[in-house]
Design goal:
mainly beta; 16 strands; 9-stranded parallel beta sheet; 136 residues; globular
């Protein structure tokens, strides 16, 4: 099976159920279910996802109500709305992102030995335009 293929689903696509592919995926539609790819995932600004996403690398521009996992790098672009937890080796958050959830960023795959200095309380939103409260 070739993994260098690129799959594109535009804004007029609506899916109820899980979507899995081996190659790159560009998604700009609506889905109630999980999106999974072994390659790169790009979520467009018109996308609305109620489910989890998982990819090697992900660029997100839409609205997601679910968890986001990237084996390598996860990018949240301006005006992204993500309500859910993040797990990635690397994370990039642009100004204007709304993120409500927890993040585990672990580029070296180290086992943490202490809790963060100032964790967010449940329901507390972190906006990229606000100064970081994570012990700087």
């Amino acid at each position: 099976m070739a993994t260098n293929s690129k799959n594109t689903l535009n804004a007029d696509v609506e899916i109820r159920g899980n979507l899995k592919c081996a190659g790159e995926l560009a998604f700009d539609g609506k889905v109630e279910g999980d999106l999974t790819t072994e390659s790169a995932l790009e979520i467009g600004e018109d996308a609305v996802i109620k489910g989890n996403i998982s990819a090697a690398n992900a660029i997100i521009r839409g609205k997601i109500n679910g968890n986001a996992t990237a084996k390598e790098k996860l990018e949240l672009k301006s005006r992204t709305e993500l309500v859910g937890d993040i797990r990635a080796a690397k994370l990039v958050i642009e100004e204007g992102v709304t993120f409500v959830g927890r993040a585990e960023i672990n580029p070296s795959k180290a086992v943490p030995n202490a809790a963060p200095a100032h964790p967010l309380r449940p329901g507390e939103a972190y906006k990229a335009s606000e100064p970081s409260r994570m012990g700087r």
